[in-house]
Design brief:
The protein is of the alpha/beta class. It has a single domain, classed as Response regulator (Rossmann fold, 3-Layer(aba) Sandwich), CATH 3.40.50.2300. The protein is 46% helix and 14% strand. It contains seven helices and five strands. The protein has a five-stranded parallel sheet with strand order 2-1-3-4-5. Strand 4, helix 5 and strand 5 form a beta-alpha-beta unit.
């Protein structure tokens, strides 16, 4: 029988990012930070929602320990996905961290009002982005006690 602790250790990180370059930078930072969890990628908010809900060929539902969400993507964007996730009883407690190029105060306010757990503006420089991502991953995966969403769903 799998213990809740070992279940939580295998839960993946879901990254919603349409930029290959930014996703590669995140994987580079995760490797440097010693992250061993599986990192799953969705390229849009719509794909993220389909993965979380297990819709279509995305079955079974994905239950990540953390979602890193870019706001700008084609189709359903990060804002719409954030609202959908945070208003869904089965998904709302998954921590969501916004990673975006927008420093617009309206975007920041919207995301926090919608339930985002953190909001980070992506630095332009690659080295600065690596530092931010490393700190963010270490914080959410090592410092914070995360709820075991997988056990709760069963």
């Amino acid at each position: 029988m799998t213990s809740p602790l070992s279940e939580a250790l295998v839960a993946p990180i879901l990254v919603v990012e349409d930029s290959d370059e930014d996703f590669d930078t995140l994987r580079e930072a995760a490797t440097a930070a010693g992250v061993t969890r599986l990192i799953r990628r969705a390229v849009s908010g719509g794909e993220c929602l389909a993965m979380l809900r297990g819709e279509g060929d995305m079955a079974p539902p994905l239950l990540p320990v953390l979602i890193l969400m870019d706001l700008n993507s084609h189709g359903v964007d990060g804002r719409e996905a954030l609202v959908a996730i945070k208003t869904d009883e089965a998904l709302k407690e998954i921590p969501m961290v916004v990673l975006t190029t927008s420093a617009n105060p309206k975007d920041v306010a919207f995301c926090f009002q919608a339930g985002a757990n953190a909001y980070h503006v992506k630095p332009v420089r690659h080295d600065q982005y690596l530092v931010l991502l490393g700190a963010l991953l270490r914080y959410w995966l090592e410092s914070v006690t995360l709820q075991n969403t997988r056990a709760k769903a069963h």
